[in-house]
Amino acid sequence: MEKLKEHLQKLRDRRVAVEQSINAAELNQQVTSHEVKSWLTKVEKIISALENDKTNRKCLNGWCPNPKARYSSSRKAKNKAQDIGELLQEGRNYGGVYIDAPPPETGSSSSTEDVKHFKSRTSILNEVLIALRDDKINIIAICGMAGVGKTEMAKEIGRRAKVDHLFDKVVIAEVSQSPNLRVIQSEIAENLGLKFYQESLAGRANALNSIITKTKNVLVILDDIWEPLDLVKVGIPYGDKHKSCKILITSRSEETCNQMKTQIIFPIKPLSEVDAWNLFKRTAGDCIQNGGPFQIAKDVLKECGGLPVAIVIIGNALANKSKEEWTAVLQQLRRSGLENIPVYSKVYSSIKSSYDYLESKEARSCFLLCCLFPEDHNIPIEDLVRYGVGRNLFANIDTIEEARREVHQMVRNLRRSNLLLDGEDEEHVKMHVVVRDVAISIASKDEHCFLVRCDYKMEEWPQNERYEHYAAISLVSKELERHLDGLECPKLELLHMSLSLERPQTFPTNLFSGMKELKILSLHCISSLSLPLSIRVLQNLRVLKLENCSLKDVSAIESLLKLKILSFRGSYIKELPREIQNLSWLKLLDLSECWDLQRIPPGVFSSLSRLEELYMEQSFPCWESPEENGNKINADLFSSQHMMVLDICIPIRLLQKGLYLRNFRIYASERLDRLFELYIKSSMHWKSRYLFENTLALECKASDIAKSPRILLMLQKAEILCLIEIRDLKNNLFELGFQSFPRLKFLEVSKCNMRYLIDVKSDQTRPHAAFPLLESLVLRWTDKLVKICHDRDVLGNLRYLNLYGCTSLKNAFPLSIARDLIQLQRLIIEHCYAMEEIFSGEEKDKKEVPKMIVFPKLYHVELNFLTSLIAFCKGNDPVSEVLESSNVDAQKPSSNQEIENILEVGEEEDAVEIIVFPKFWSFKWPSMHEIYLYECPNLITFGPEIGSTAKPKKINVGLDSKRQDHTGTTSSVKNAPGFLDRCLDCVLCRKKLQGSSSLGGNEPEFQGQILHPPVNKEVDPNGNDRDIQTEIRSLIPSSLINSMQNLQLLEAVKCNSLEAIFELEGLNLEKSSAFIACNNLRELKLRTLPKLKHIWKDGPQEITGFHELRLLVVSECHNLKYLFSPSIAKLLVELEEIEVQECNEMEAILAKARENEKSEVTFPNVHTLSLVRLRKLECFCVEANAFKWPSLTKVKVVGCDKLKMFVPRKVETPPELVRVNTDLRELKFQYMVGDLNDAIREMMIKCEGRSLQSRPADWVTIVTFCHLQGIQS
């Protein structure tokens, strides 16, 4: 029997080995032979038979052996052992005794460790993981410039996805600039344990596709994609039919990501300054901290531009090096000689490969032009346009407008390739500091030969022996005064100089004599009496920019006959030189912001027969001059057949005489002295300067517009329209003479007396035809405006709404219109003193009222100086709602959540309780990022405010409100079986029912009745009576928190009625176990909120959220007694700065812990704590909480008279790392020794010992912890 057991165990082991071999074969698309299957069947039978025999060898239910069977079993065992031996021998022929080890885990490399410590990467990491959980998303991308850390991020995502059990398999393959499909297939197969036996690409793809499809959940990471990869040819299944496989790609090119049909692109930016410094310290070591080259290290780090690969390479290379070696590397980096720094060659080659990959020579030239500008400069794209025209970069392009379109497309592509960054607006770009260094290095080579020196302290031209080979020179300095005489630059095509107006320049007469091939001359901030006479030799000059200059005489430009572009933008010039009329090839003339321009000689514009674009923004208001015929000037101006763009301020009567333009930006007024004021008053000055949209700003009578066919024609073509003080406009815009603005995208109406924007009647044009494309609407100081519009489908494309000083407007829109604002992104309302709500719930047609209002794209809200505002929406009039609901049963709500409230309508003794239903005014804000509230003294809640002060006009229509007394009597509700129990459950849950604790009686007693409890009491869930006045409404009620998960900034100032900010009490954690409250909120600023009692109204201790809050500022909240509770404090793991000022009632920062509430508190990232003029503050907390402050570096205490200790426990600090400033006037620092509590106590005693005369007005104590590693109890 023992021998049989031994053989049986060996057979089991052999079966396992054979099955593993079979599984491996199946992974590799191999078929199991019939013999092996037969062997497994035999093995299974014999093992099963032996198991059954073992069971039958017992009798009496297993209590004693069966003696009769013992002999027979022994004989059978010998036979079975022989059979097993034969099977074992056969099984040795089927499969090996081992299988391949599993591949290493994706992301297990130590290189991903840093990603977890980068705060600037955490949010992206979490967002990608959320996207991977979404069943609707199959392909996502991480996009960023070279060296920014895309690969490490992808590996860390793979590791986290595996740890979080999102996928059974996570595989990664590098694609690279020259993808090899066989290599990619092999890398993926190796990660999956697949061996290819097929030779063809198609066969390998089928095998890979089959195994990925069979695997339950697979994440495929394709790293470093340069151009679209054919996933089918590789063998990667994707799409809705293959939801078990998700794909994550990394690429430098956004365009490539789009071509691969990625559903979400996550841009990854350079590291933040803090993260970059922390990484640099870890790689460079202690040498930069312990007496080492600290400031030089900071400068070196700046040259790395937040690129992890550059930081690591430089940090490792300079670890433990001398100060001289650090200085040498810094000088090389500043000279942009990256290829000459051996350790930096990887960074250089990585970025240069992106440059080499650009498709066209024009794109590469456009990229190199960007390095002419200073570091971190907002580069005007218009400059690139004009430089491109000057260098003839564009083949087969005849007009400036075409060239501009081409350059903007190039810039978009460069942005998508992450070679350029976004600038301050759509007309500017930036170049990353490291990318700029690479660009300068490339441009300095023989093929291009750029000389770029942007040094504000440079006093003279670079001391180069020869300038003959340079094609472009850029010099930027505020100190440059000495210019080289007789420069020989025979190949120079572009000269850019930006100097200082404060230093008048004296140019050598022959400065330009050796630059006869110059095509572009750009002089900025030059102060000189005249241009050098040698400018006359520049016969090939095509672009001349004299911008922000002070030049007395520019007549020398008359000889520049090939000039195509001439700009005097922002320059001091009183008279346009008559000699300009000789420039017959001129296509663009820019006189914008020439404030002092007073005279344009007659005939100048008519001579410029090829002029396409004229820019005179804020220039030359003197169109009518007694000595120069103003009408003739304008007639000549408008007769140019090539004119495409006109940007001008002009009298309204000249505008009426005839103007046919394709593109225009015109400011027209009745009064000449108001032209510039019209420009400033309008919102047009912040619109695009050169990305032209037809713009018209008018200040005149309505009749002037209605009677002028020319103006009406321009209104039809206008994309941007500003109407200021249009007199005689009484009712709406249709009084201007037409009922449609077919191209209008931006509309501003200011100081007009109309009552409606549009007022559509049944016999007029359908409302949707009025503004089919309108995106932005600005209404300013329209005092008589009572309603924007009546009808739906009017503003369905609206993205931006700004209401300012509309003092008669009580709401912006009714709810029926609000539900159509699905494109709305920004909402700003200011100084509308009569506005009580943003959206009105009062509707004539109740069928028009939606149950849920969703603003899917709204991300920014500002509500300022709205003195009557109560809530975002007050809701319907409760009485009229009841009166129209005669059949209560027909209106019976489907769930408790639809019952909104029990209200009291009326005052004092006449108050009547009314049930309002359903909940029509629910809102959702899925994209909300920023909320600014300023001086809204009556604002109570951002959610719907339920209530009305109107007295009931009529009772007992469907509701028998037969009232008996004020103490628990009832009114019957007819034909509403089961209605009240829903009401009571809902209302009790929401703490809105007023009454006594007797309400907890048997449910049948109240069936079909409405209870009328006393008006001055309410019942909480514990059955305790309390005054109705103790009910606190929150700015963000619990019903809204779930829809504000993207909120990043909340600021409330001078909102005198606010009592709480976040209501957490009503959060239902059972329904959403994964719910995390406001987890993207980063900044919370609360100032001058006199009634504020709670920032967080405590909810369940199990709540999670607010993890990303970094800055908390609270000031002048005199009713606030503490900042947060321990349960909230434990959530604030990313909090960095706490600033509390002038809160008169604040006794402690941390409230006393509730029963069973965890009292240990850790602030892992708080580095600054500021406590200013908190007169009642005695300590940070009143309990002996366990505190940990591992990052605290600075504590500031100002005017906290009663502060005696920090916490009621000892808080140790390293004495050599702490400095204390006890007197701002003396600015003396002393080291703090021992306990933080002792130090604070000692400082208080010293301050108390001073006389009032010697104490500063606001005595200050500042404790600074430098490089503090940890403070804890």
TrEMBL record:
Keyword Repeat found: yes
A Pfam family recorded for this sequence: NB-ARC
Coiled-coil residue spans: 1-28
Sequence similarity: Belongs to the disease resistance NB-LRR family.
Keyword ATP-binding among record annotations: yes
SMART domains xref list: AAA
Protein name in UniProt: AAA+ ATPase domain-containing protein
Domain (AAA+ ATPase): residue spans on this chain: 136-272
Domain of life, source organism: Eukaryota
Species of origin: Juglans regia (English walnut)
Keyword entries, A-Z: ATP-binding, Coiled coil, Leucine-rich repeat, Nucleotide-binding, Plant defense, Repeat
Record GO terms (molecular function): ADP binding; ATP binding
A GO BP entry: defense response
PANTHER family: AAA+ ATPASE DOMAIN-CONTAINING PROTEIN, NB-ARC DOMAIN-CONTAINING PROTEIN-RELATED
Entries under InterPro entries matching the protein: AAA+_ATPase, Apaf_helical, At4g27190-like_LRR, LRR_dom_sf, LRR_R13L4/SHOC2-like, NB-ARC, P-loop_NTPase, Plant_NBS-LRR
